Amino acid sequence: MNLPLIIPDNQITLLSGDVWIVYVIGIIILILYNVFKEKDEKNQLAEEIASIPQLEIKVTKTKLPEEIKLGPMPSFKVEFKGWVSHPTDPTIKLNLFIKDVYLNDEGEEKLMPVSCPVLPDWTEGTTRFLRITEEINTSPFGHFKEFTHFKFIPIEYLSGPFKGKRKLRFSLIATDVDAQSDWGAFSKDQVSKIRHIASTDIDHTFTEVGFLENFLNREQIENLSIKVALAIAASDGNLDQKELNVIKEWANLSTTKLEEKEAKEKKKKISNFIKEAYVEAKSKKISVSGLIEELNDKAIKEQKYELVDLLLKVVSADDELSKEEDVMLNKIVKKLEIDQKTYNQMKNKTIASVGKIETDDYSSGSDEQLLGLSDEVTNEEKCKELRKLYSKWNGLTNSSNKQTKTRAKEMVKKIATLRSKYNC
Amino acid sequence: MSKIVGIDLGTTFSAIAILDDLGNPEVLANPDTNSKITPSVVYIGKTDKVLVGDKAKDAAIAEPNRVAIEVKREMENEDVVFDPTKGTFIEGEKNSKNFTPSQISSLILSKLKDYTTGVRKAVITVPALFAERARTATIDAAKLAGIEVLELINEPTAAILHYANLPGSSLSGRILVFDLGGGTFDVTIAKVQGKIVDVITSRGDKHLGGTDFDREIVKLLSEKYKKEKGTGLNEKDKKIQDIAEKIKRILSVKEKVSEVVDGPKGPIKIEITRAQFEKAIGRYLEQIKMLVEDALESADCTHEQIKQTLLVGGSTRVPCVVETIKKVMKKNPVKGVNVDEAVASGAAIYAGLLSKKDLNAAQKKSLDKIELEDVCNHYLGTLVVAKDHERNILGVANKIIIERDTKLPCSKTVEVETLYDGQAVIECSVTQSEGPEKDKEFVTILHESNLDLPKNRPAGQPIKVTYSYDKSGTIHVEFLDVNSKKKYEADLKPMGSQSIKDLKKDLNFDIE
Ligand SMILES: Nc1ncnc2c1ncn2[C@@H]1O[C@H](COP(=O)(O)OP(=O)(O)O)[C@@H](O)[C@H]1O
């Protein structure tokens, strides 16, 4: 970025002449002229400097412009103006932070940084907290007169600490190039490197569960997931050991990062929980829809996908994907409000690898279920989707994996038979 | 003198063509039967006697277990062998009493080779979507038969070459070649301008052909037999399969057929109507429709923009296949003059193009204006660690480097980065897939190696991955560490694999 810089012009050019009188008069005129000129320039400069505002930041909600080529994602547009000067260095670093403003139990205003899990370049590196930096050229007089574009921040990239309507504080901090932030702030030894600060507040509603809330609810979410998994394992009438083992293994994953003693305790806790939930599941006392509602309220997207992964493992633990399991899985996924396409991709891997898939051949819509065909689309769209699916599975009949290859041939038959019903 | 030869090694029928002294392709007839197409059927006798073609078919009646059919469908399978006591390809270890698919294919090639003299090198045709392993096995088969493969050419491409090169050919504009044979279906769209053939896209299904139609008829026969006699037929019985094929051929011209079928409870006469047959193969017709639609979409054109639809392959004689094409293309297809010979002829023309220095003046002149541009039929990629943004996790994913339908020759570079600080090695993998697969589970790994990198460098070191794909099917891959200039390079080409000597040992047969 190039800055329009003001450099005071103090050098004076002298005239010269042949005749001394002319020379003297000339000099006098010149001196007078220059005195006035200098005075005038200094005044002007002083006025101009005085008119430059402190660093200011402006944030508006907008859509990503076309040239960014990520589609018209809703974004924050961040602009700034005013001083970005540095007394000695030719460059200065702009740091942007976004923080959630909340009140603690004592009613005091506190700040919690917003994180940016998808784009490591936009984080501090050590934490996942958002910090966008950019170095710009400057001088002791570096400034921007008008609001100047800094960044577009796709809202989707941000993860707040809390769900719901929030106040977000955007801070733009101009620092020395080597200044380092930690947990969204500059520590005492870094403070001297701060040159200019600007901030502004904006209201925003996060639709996803906040990472902080989520952290606090982690264990509860794990337990909810275990219950859902047990319920689906029991959906075909019998809950067998293989399915149970998959669930146990998954639950114990959360203990791998703990110290030995803690891990042991946690494992015991998990084991007890599973035992109780197992009894509930066997007697079909678990209300899956209730559990999903709770998960939707508390779990973040990653955890929902983790659950789906677990469920896919559970349903294929006995090496057969039954119709009941498939129907139930689809219902759960729909309720969890996760991306259908991503789910279909996950499920395709299960379809390719499981020993047997049970569907009612070509009737009662179970093939549509298996293929993830939505019944909310037109026949024409179904035709197109089925063609895409055929293309995929036909390609997989070339697979070097024998199981995948056999399944692919089966799927081709299913898809083609189903499509011939739609009169495409 | 070595001849310029093209061979169509088909699922059910094979043919061999040479370039005559004037540069015109000529399909050679079997001197014994005077037929230009030879059934791809091999009989392996108890003594060292082997029959290929019509004679093998005849022998199948008496000794069905000693006859191998549809070997082409097995070419992609590494671990199957033909067991001459069972009559089928089975999974199992190779020993001196059984035969690999390439050994069986080599016997067919040896037979064809003997229709003339001087067959040392040849172009052999394969379905556009033949897997890499199947291509390798085809080259092995040729080697075993003492034939050096100049290059493999895709069957539909060979067919277009043949049609474009016919005297007074009026092909111009976008042409769709519809090739439905005994075992495979290919659809190719090409731009033809005089003798310049520019392939735009190829689609195919390797499990769709006339023999699948036969099997549906066998099922119908068995159902009807069961209705009357209480038990079904042995669907693997070659005699019944032959009857089914005959019924299919008759249904191409008649509305219904009655044939005597001999089952476990004695012979009865069974009638099959064309409507019953068409219903039974409905799902195959749907697959044909989907592939044609897919090809049109990939070629970025509508049915109106296709000037002509050319039919190739014996199964395009089935009336409802033609109806299906009409439905999608909204006009009548053009029946080629000799659907059975077009592919072999095209292969001979291509062999001529590849061996220009061996041609006489007349041949040179005849092939003068022919040009062929083909495309890559697969996606080629490499495995990388990538972020799944939707799921917010890191995982191994397939990154595509060369897209399907890219014109050959081509070269593409993508830049990736080292993943972690101090990373001292990267895995260099080359993957192939039919679709734009991201999942590692759904791609075939063609090649794997490592590249050692300087130690103690931070993450994010740029690595340039370049794939170059030439017309002969050779893929040159290069993984370059930009900063240290260290690189890993390899040439991947369809070549024979196994030590041919071992396989040759069991093939001391008299071939008839
Ligand atoms: N008149 C016909 N009606 C229906 N099918 C036929 C007819 N003639 C040949 N076929 C079928 O065509 C197939 C062979 O076609 P061809 O192009 O020679 O195949 P390939 O080269 O794959 O062996 C066989 O399945 C055969 O039954």
Descriptive notes:
The complex is a heterodimer of chains A (424) and B (512). Chain A has 424 residues and is of the alpha+beta class. Chain A has helices at 20-51, 211-234, 241-252, 260-282, 288-298, 301-315, 323-336, 340-353, 366-371, 379-396, 402-421; strands at residues 56-63, 74-83, 91-103, 109-113, 132-137, 143-154, 164-175, 194-206, 320-321, 356-357. In chain A, strands 3, 4, 5, 7 and 8 form a 5-stranded antiparallel β-sheet that branches. Chain A has a 3-stranded antiparallel β-sheet with strand order 1-2-6, with no helix packed on it. In chain A, α3 runs antiparallel to α6. Chain A starts with 19 loop residues before the first helix and ends with a helix. Chain B is α+β, with helices and mostly antiparallel strands and 512 residues long. Chain B folds into 3 domains: 5-166 and 338-370, Nucleotidyltransferase, domain 5, CATH 3.30.420; 210-280, Actin, Chain A, domain 4 (Alpha-Beta Complex), CATH 3.90.640.10; 379-492, Substrate Binding Domain Of DNAk, Chain A, domain 1. Helices cover 27% and strands 34% of the residues of chain B. In chain B, the strands form 7 sheets. In chain B, strands 1, 2, 3, 4, 10 and 11 form a 6-stranded mixed β-sheet that branches. A 6-stranded mixed β-sheet of chain B has the order 18-17-12-13-14-19. A 4-stranded mixed β-sheet of chain B has the order 7-5-6-28, sandwiched between helices. In chain B, α2 (101-113) crosses α3 and α4 crosses α10. Chain B is globular and about 80 Å long. The two termini of chain B are 24 Å apart. The mean pLDDT of chain B is 92. Chain A binds chain B through residues 117-118, 301-302, 305, 339, 342, 345, 348-349, 352-353, 386-387, 390-392, 394-401, 404, 409, 412-413, 416-417, 419-420, 424, and chain B through 76, 129, 131, 133, 205-207, 282-287, 289-291, 293-294, 387-393, 433-435, 437-439, 441-442, 444-445. The structure holds adenosine-5'-diphosphate. The site of adenosine-5'-diphosphate has 20 residues of chain B, from α5 and α6.
